[in-house]
């Protein structure tokens, strides 16, 4: 591993004057590097082996990493200059980083992140907010904003970040690139500053699906297995119904690609909220969220609350003492979460652990070894830079509800860009069971090109988005009716079939299904 080059911006042992100088340098160079980097450096790979031996698997690739990974002799900022001022240089390099370097990749710098990797906006008032190359007037997404921007702006081939509650998935979605959150525990956490140990994962970004996969094979160190096609691709219809993007530009793209690659028989539709409610009973024990055993809030919103609770509790265990001594100045979004009155009971901790365990079992049961769950990555477009939208409870709830699925279950998730809608990047996410990381990367490789083709067709199609959306909505209502029918809830089934008929009265199946439900009701 090579030593840093002479022209790096040294941050070791910086006092306040040095921090000011570093910040000023960053502001001056923002047009050059989009504000992505905190420190430029070089970690060089070993010399390539002599022929006929194969070259290192990541030879000629460059990467950057969020500034919370240990690099020997370097003080990570953890997204805040006060952290660097009060901590010593690392004595060794994070295994995730050194493994990539030993595999032939060159690390060229560390990148900006939210204060303490705690936000989803990617904004940082101390080091500057990286510019989103896809939509410069909007936030890049966080927490690993600089790492995503470095890839989106073509400064590096791939980059590393940490995904606790969306830290890789959100910026990938906002910047229009690929982002991978592995199964919890699949990549070593050694040598990273912890945010929330039960939720933290080392994730990575790339534009090229082949590079994303190659990096994954190195980091995951998974044994080789024959590539398998998905047996089921399950569309979470209720999640897509909440999107501010028409269905023909999101879930419909995945449906079309699936039909072309694997056939209609592979597709399945699900109401994920209902499934989680039935399979994660500990959600009902959430304080102030139940009434006669029935959930007042949606199961996904409750899941998001559990995720926020765990993150705040575990962050506090590690860092609250330091926070109380140093009293760092924080971005409003981070400050609102870390400075609110936070009390925790043993009952809440145990209940959160139960939810996490049940959620993993529920997703693994749904997907088994060769199933894929399809959800939106985020519910809304990137908010304006410096705006208050991302601070609102509604925005946070809508975003974190989707992000909590993989975070709480510990399952792996990949964010896939699908072009633009209304000038903003659109993405979907595929989720596989815990431990199904290699299968998920293989599925991405198989589907990526067809997904992009279908996204391009949808973007240029002259068909009315409302017509497509109505047809899709009718199908969703029909699927809900079918489920109610299976559960022998005849009146409920009739209601859903009637809703489908109102949306699309030309489909004879809806009338037939409703008539059958009426017959069953009359037999009672």
From TrEMBL:
Chain ranges of the Amidase domain: 56-208, 320-441
Keywords for the protein's UniProt record, in alphabetical order: Membrane, Transmembrane, Transmembrane helix
Residues passing through the membrane, by range: 6-23
Keyword DNA damage applies: no
InterPro entries: Amidase_dom (IPR023631), AS_sf (IPR036928), TPR-like_helical_dom_sf (IPR011990)
Superkingdom in the source lineage: Eukaryota
Protease keyword on record: no
Protein name: Amidase domain-containing protein
Organism: Trifolium subterraneum
């Amino acid at each position: 591993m090579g030593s840093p080059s002479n022209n790096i911006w040294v941050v070791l042992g910086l006092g306040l004057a040095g921090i000011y100088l570093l910040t000023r340098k960053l502001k001056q160079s923002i047009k050059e590097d989009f504000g992505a980097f905190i420190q430029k450096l070089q970690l060089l790979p070993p010399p390539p082996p002599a022929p006929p031996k194969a070259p290192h698997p990541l030879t000629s690739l460059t990467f950057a990493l969020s500034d919370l990974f240990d690099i020997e002799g370097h003080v990570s900022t953890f997204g805040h200059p006060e952290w660097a001022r009060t901590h010593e240089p690392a004595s060794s390099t994070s295994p995730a980083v050194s493994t990539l370097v030993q595999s032939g990749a060159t690390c060229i710098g560390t990148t900006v992140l939210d204060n303490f990797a705690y936000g989803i906006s990617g904004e940082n008032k101390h080091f500057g907010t990286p510019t989103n190359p896809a939509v410069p007037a909007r936030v890049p997404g966080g927490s690993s904003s600089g790492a995503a921007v470095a890839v989106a702006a073509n400064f590096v081939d791939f980059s590393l970040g940490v995904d606790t509650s969306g830290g890789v998935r959100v910026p990938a979605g906002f910047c229009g690139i690929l982002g991978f959150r592995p199964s919890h525990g699949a990549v070593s956490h050694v040598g990273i500053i912890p945010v929330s140990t039960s939720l933290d994962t080392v994730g990575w970004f790339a534009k090229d699906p082949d590079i994303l996969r190659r990096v994954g094979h190195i980091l995951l160190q998974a044994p080789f297995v024959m590539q398998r096609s998905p047996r089921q691709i399950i569309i979470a219809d209720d999640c897509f119904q909440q999107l501010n993007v028409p269905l023909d530009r999101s879930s419909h793209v995945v449906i079309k690609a699936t039909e072309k690659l694997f056939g209609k028989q592979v597709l399945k539709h699900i109401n994920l909220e209902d499934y989680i409610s039935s399979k994660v009973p500990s959600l009902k024990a959430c304080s102030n969220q139940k009434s006669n055993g029935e959930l007042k809030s949606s199961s996904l919103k409750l899941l998001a609350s559990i995720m926020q609770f765990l993150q705040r509790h575990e962050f506090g265990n590690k860092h609250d003492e330091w926070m109380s001594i140093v009293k760092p100045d924080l971005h409003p979004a981070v400050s609102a979460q870390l400075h609110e009155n936070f009390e925790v009971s043993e009952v809440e901790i145990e209940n959160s652990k139960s939810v996490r365990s049940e959620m993993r079992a529920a997703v693994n049961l749904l997907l088994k070894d060769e199933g894929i769950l399809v959800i939106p990555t985020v519910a809304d477009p990137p908010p304006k830079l410096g705006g208050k939208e991302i601070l609102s409870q509604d925005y946070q709830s809508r975003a974190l509800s989707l992000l909590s699925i993989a975070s709480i279950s510990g399952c792996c998730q990949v964010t896939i860009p699908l072009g633009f809608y209304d000038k903003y990047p659109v993405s979907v996410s595929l989720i596989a069971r815990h431990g199904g990381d290699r299968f998920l990367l293989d599925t991405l490789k198989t589907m990526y090109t067809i997904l992009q083709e279908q996204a391009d067709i949808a973007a240029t199609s002259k068909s009315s988005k409302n017509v497509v959306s109505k047809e899709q909505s009718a199908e969703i209502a029909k699927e809900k009716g079918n489920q109610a029918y299976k559960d022998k809830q005849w009146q409920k089934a009739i209601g859903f079939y009637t809703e489908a008929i109102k949306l699309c009265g030309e489909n004879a199946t809806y009338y037939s299904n409703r008539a059958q439900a009426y017959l069953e009701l009359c037999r009672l």
